[in-house]
Amino acid sequence: MVKEPELYKVVMLNDNFTTMEFVVEILIDIFGKTEAEARKTMLSVHKQGRGVAGVYVYDIALSKIAKVDEAAKEKGFPLKCIAEKE
What we know:
The protein has 3 helices and 3 strands. It is an alpha+beta fold. It is globular and about 45 Å long. It has helices at about 20-30, 35-50, 60-75; strands at about 5-15, 50-55, 80-85. The chain has a 3-stranded antiparallel beta sheet. It has one domain (about 5-85): CATH 3.30.1390.10. Helix content is about 50%, strand content about 25%.
């Protein structure tokens, strides 16, 4: 029997510097969300301190996190994402 790969949530963490617009842009560009989905997730990050950007197998989750880190660094934002087992 083939075992399904474990899934990981990519969780976006709130900070006091990253703009809401940048978070929405990242959610659309890197996570493939619609504008409405991106805004909903961004508000969750803003109000609850964290929001799930997506759920992926481990390697894809890490790849998405690396892309977010790179994009945030390029724009001078401290935006962070972490992977949590689903």
